[in-house]
């Protein structure tokens, strides 16, 4: 979704959406109550896709997904917005509004809270070694990996300086040991570092190893 669409959606407050879709919200909430009473809801086993070890869906998202797939919330939004690309974002915001206005001790919200608990238990039994990884954690791991690669390069440069090794700039391939000769088929990433010899230290990475000359 483009920034322009997100900005357009964010400009509409929840109060604006409630005024615009008030009748739709009431009708969809009634439909939700009927589907739960009639057992027209998925079970925890059905929600847990075979072989999928992703983090199980929480109670609010279970409810919003049900409002979209079974209760016709998106269909009602399409009647107003047409086939606009922002339809899904508006639909999910309306689902969140419905979830927040449900009674915390009411049967509808309690149903999805219980369903989420069952989903977590089944997921835990099927994937006992699963450890959730947040986006922030994944970014930190990536940055740390990059830091280790650059540290390796800097350490190598310091060793060269300590031993006063003059790198072969005219033919950098000759500087590498035979087993580290760079294949022309490798995808190369270039890095440049300043050297006390007033030459450029070149580094190539094939994704697994760093080559310095």
From TrEMBL:
Keyword Nucleus: yes
Keyword match Signal: no
Gene Ontology terms, MF aspect: DNA binding
HMG box domain boundaries: 53-131
DNA-binding region: 53-131
Protein name, UniProt field: HMG box domain-containing protein
InterPro entries: HMG_box_dom (IPR009071)
Recorded superkingdom: Eukaryota
Native source species: Rhizophagus irregularis
Entry keywords, A to Z: DNA-binding, Nucleus
Cellular component aspect of the GO annotation: nucleus
